[in-house]
Structures are given as structure tokens and as C-alpha cells.
Write a structure and sequence with these properties.
By secondary structure, the chain is mostly beta strands. 8% of the residues lie in helices and 44% in strands. It has a domain at 1-39 and 234-337: Methylamine Dehydrogenase, Chain H, CATH 2.130.10. The chain contains four helices and 28 strands. Residues 11-32 have low confidence and may be disordered.
């Protein structure tokens, strides 16, 4: 069965589950979905950091909100923070209980807050955005490769193309910039009419999608540097967008004009021809981050209050797990092996989750 068909059935199944007497969507889903198990917390809360005698291991950890997390192809986790640092974590070491081996490296402090990070597909480089500068890092050596300047406002989001040849950056100057990694030059300046909050390359690398505060989602042709399509406007900012691994569908959260009774937590799935495929609703707060697992089996979403939803297309069901962060949750990421989820929060910590079962 195609993924599009599974998505359609999932949308219908959620409605059907809600109508079952005495059975919530979560209770039904738990009988068929994999388990989401919390396995580690990376970092310390402000309360713990204020008590160094009780929590001596909190030294050198993030001291402000985590705004972006990303997995490398081989499973290392990077986190970018408002404290102007990027940290690299060995998630595998958490299972061994070796606190000294978990934090691998802290990259040299940046002059501005780190709001977005992304690994290159080969894992060699890390791109970060914050302030008016985009930075390319050799994270394994802990060295800055190059600064990319040109933005006239704060950079909110960065993304790397699937072949690693390009990366894109955007923010509140309302221009999407596309850069060539090898030549270190600007390829395209794509004019937006909104502050850009999220970027995503299609898996074939031919299309770049942007979304933002103006409540629209735009598709850009990277061969010609031209706007292909605009979806929206909606009622609320579109904070996060994500492609399926096969490139057949795009997911984002948005509320329709004229439907003020529709939750701001609504996930929309579209094909690349601009045709709607499904609408998913169950979050109780605004969604801030979305990610598909690389095997296309699950869509993972997290809202501002810290509730993770696991949408299973094959099982036609949804399960939920509170992150138990004590601050707003801004970001999630999924590992390449489909087994690990990370969430980053305003409480200065990262939670790591294991996806097990079917």
C-alpha cells in the first residue's frame, strides 16, 4: 500500500477511534504502536545549575534554551542554544551510564544565539544559523570552516541539500539564500514576503520549501531560482515543515482562514502538486516541530507544551508521550536508524527517546 493511501487511512482512523465508546485514541493506539521510551536527559535545568554542590556535573552544559537539535548520519547529536554554543553528544554513551563520555565537544562560542543547526549528509560538516551570520563547521575537529554573511536580519533556520552540495538559510530579513558549499558562494536569493521560520529541501534536491510568519508555505525551483507554488495563507505562523523520505509528501502545521474553531495544532499533508492528502488533529497546543522517520513509517510532532505525538501510517493510529520538559519545547529530531528521538526545550535540556517495538 502506498504511503499516500496509508496517510489517508490514518486520517480516517483517528476520526473513527474518537467515536469508539470508552476508548481514547491513545488507548487504542497503544495496543498496536511501538513504545516511546525515555532513555536519557542531556543537560541540567536552571534550578540544578544554581546548585553546583549538589549537581557538579552541570558544569559546561547549556545554560539557556535549546532551539535546535540534529542527528549526524552516524548517530551523534548536535544541539544549538540561545547561550551561543553548539554541543555534540554521544547518545550511545547514555546507555552505558558514562556521564563523562556523553558530551563529546563544545564548538567555539558564536557571537550570536544559535537558532538552527543541520548536518551535511556525509556527516563531515555542520551548518548553524543565528544573528546575521551562517557558519560552516568541521565539527569533528571543532573548527570553523567559514562564515557566510549577507543576511540583513536574524537567521532563524538553515537546511542542507540531500547531496550536501547546497545549504539554505533564511530569517527575518524575508530573503531565502542558497549557498554552494564547495565554492562558498551565493547561488540564489529568493525573495519572501514573510519572516521565514522553516526550510526543507526535497529528497531529490530540486525543490526548496519555505514557511513562516506570513502563514504561507512556498515551493521554490532550485534549477531556475523561481517560485513554483504558494500554499495558504493560513491563520497562524507555519513553524515547521518536513518531507517524507521518498519526497511524495510535505507536512506542516497550519490553521485555515474561516475555521477559527479548528485547532492551531492541525497538521496538513500535501503532495508536491499542491493537492491535500490528509489533515491530522489531536495536539492541545501549537505545534513547533515535525519530523518523519527516514523509513517513512512515522510522523513525529511536538507541541509547545511538550507533548510528542507518534503518527503510525501502517497501524493507522497515533500514540502520545509527554516529554516532561519543564519549559517550552522548540525542536525535535529523529536518528537515521529510525530508533532515537531527541527533543530540545527552554528548560536548557535535551530529552532522548527510544522508539521500540514494531
Amino acid at each position: 500500500m502506498s504511503l499516500k493511501r496509508r496517510v489517508s487511512l490514518l486520517s480516517l482512523a483517528i476520526l473513527s477511534i474518537a467515536a469508539v465508546v470508552g476508548a481514547s485514541s491513545t488507548s487504542v493506539a497503544q495496543r498496536v504502536l511501538p513504545q516511546i521510551q525515555s532513555v536519557a536527559r542531556l543537560g541540567c535545568t536552571p534550578r540544578e545549575q544554581s546548585r553546583p554542590r549538589e549537581f557538579p556535573w552541570c558544569v559546561n552544559l547549556h545554560t539557556r534554551a535549546i532551539r535546535s537539535v540534529a542527528f549526524s548520519p552516524d548517530g551523534y547529536l548536535a544541539s544549538g542554544s540561545v547561550d551561543k554554543t553548539i554541543k555534540i553528544w554521544n547518545v550511545a554513551a547514555t546507555a552505558q551510564g558514562d556521564r563523562n563520555r556523553v558530551l563529546v565537544r563544545t564548538l567555539p562560542a558564536s557571537p550570536e544565539q544559535i537558532l538552527s543547526i543541520a548536518f551535511s549528509p556525509d556527516g563531515r560538516h555542520l551548518v548553524s544559523g543565528g544573528g546575521r551570520v551562517v557558519r560552516l563547521w568541521d565539527w569533528q575537529r571543532g573548527e570553523l570552516v567559514q562564515d557566510f554573511s549577507g543576511h540583513e536580519g536574524i537567521v532563524y533556520t538553515v537546511a542542507v541539500s540531500p547531496d550536501g552540495r547546497l545549504f539554505a538559510s533564511a530569517g527575518n530579513d524575508k530573503v531565502v539564500r542558497v549557498w554552494d558549499v564547495a565554492t562558498r558562494t551565493l547561488v540564489w536569493e529568493l525573495p519572501e514576503n514573510q519572516e521565514v521560520l522553516s526550510l526543507a529541501f526535497s529528497p531529490d534536491g530540486r525543490t526548496l520549501v519555505s514557511s513562516g510568519s506570513g502563514s504561507t508555505v512556498k515551493q521554490w525551483d532550485l534549477q531556475e531560482g523561481e517560485l513554483m507554488m504558494t500554499m495558504g495563507p493560513y491563520l497562524n505562523p507555519v513553524w515547521s515543515i518536513a518531507f517524507t523520505a521518498d519526497g511524495e509528501m510535505l507536512a506542516y502545521s497550519a490553521q485555515r482562514p474561516g475555521f477559527r474553531n479548528e485547532p492551531a495544532d492541525t497538521i496538513r499533508l500535501w503532495d508536491l502538486q499542491g493537492e491535500p492528502e490528509a489533515v491530522l488533529q489531536t495536539h492541545a497546543a501549537e505545534i513547533r516541530s515535525l519530523a518523519f522517520t527516514p523509513n517513512n513509517q512515522h510522523l513525529i510532532s511536538v507541541d509547545l507544551q511538550g507533548m510528542i505525538k507518534l503518527w503510525d501510517f501502517a497501524a493507522e493510529a497515533v500514540a502520545e508521550m509527554p516529554t516532561e520538559h519543564i519549559g517550552e519545547v522548540w525542536t525535535i529530531a529523529v536518528s537515521r536508524d529510525n530508533r532515537t528521538i531527541a527533543s530540545g526545550s527552554a528548560d536548557n535540556t535535551i530529552k532522548v527517546w527510544q522508539l521500540s517495538g514494531r
